[in-house]
């Protein structure tokens, strides 16, 4: 009798434990253009005089998000370097509790490694989409894209990445960047916490928030965002219709060699995929891995 009771209690405790005690798993995608303190185009790629400073600043904003995530209940944080070569963050600069994905040769680029096991996504250092008139360093994917539309809606990197997170049912809880980027991502994800770390005066000039204040705000938003994060039902209603308009005619000329890529204008192509991960992968091929020049 006693033994049965003890067994029942132990069994109840064991079955309750996974949900009651499980820490949160958090995914952090870190771009560079929207990092606090970054403000000039000689900071954004390797070999440029100010690049070394910029990658340190990038690590500081990433670390603020990581600290906040752990304060908010994370027990596992995966950071994905999401800018250019995607080899900007140095592991020795990063909070030692976080795992890091590097290098740009990956199917899902800025969202590589995300799946349905995560509880929250954080975007750090994001920028506005291509042709946003005032966004600092505004572009989508690479310099060749003029506009990207998914199911009829023009999106930037933040909007596209949010669709992939939604596919997995993982809420995007924080975005940091300039004011234009934050407003743009908030349109795609209304419940998100936005952290404006600089005010874009135009595509090249910005008013920078003091670094300590910016990092503190990222940390606090990450803490609150992760604490309140609740997984949603995966949003998998396909198909996903993609249209990409380029700034030149050479990329579409090459892209339409693939039968499923339809030419819709001299400078634009379109295609359809049943799943968002497949659409994401092909979008990335179409602006990054085709290079007629
Ligand atoms: Zn970038």
Topology:
Elements: H1 2-21, E1 24-30, H2 51-71, E2 74-81, E3 99-101, E4 120-126, E5 145-150, E6 153-154, H3 157-168, E7 172-178, H4 179-188, E8 193-200, E9 206-208, H5 211-228, E10 240-246, H6 250-255, E11 262-265, E12 268-273, H7 276-289
Parallel strand pairs: 1-2, 1-4, 2-3, 4-7, 7-8
Antiparallel strand pairs: 5-6, 5-10, 8-9, 10-12, 11-12
The chain binds zinc ion.
General description of the model:
The protein has 293 residues and is α/β, with parallel strands linked by helices. Helices cover 34% and strands 23% of the residues. It has helices at 2-21, 51-71, 157-168, 179-188, 211-228, 250-255, 276-289, and strands at residues 24-30, 74-81, 99-101, 120-126, 145-150, 153-154, 172-178, 193-200, 206-208, 240-246, 262-265, 268-273. α4 (179-188) links the parallel β7 (172-178) and β8 (193-200). α2 runs parallel beside α5. The protein binds zinc ion. Zinc ion is lined by residues 31-33, 83-84.
Main sheet record: 7 strands, mixed
Number of helices: 7
Bound molecules: zinc ion
Radius of gyration: 20 Å
Q: How would you summarize what this structure contains?
A:
The protein has 293 residues and is an alpha/beta fold. Helix content is 34%, strand content 23%.
List keywords for this structure.
12 strands; disordered N terminus; binds zinc ion; 293 residues; 23% strand; single chain; alpha/beta; 7-stranded mixed sheet; 5-stranded antiparallel sheet
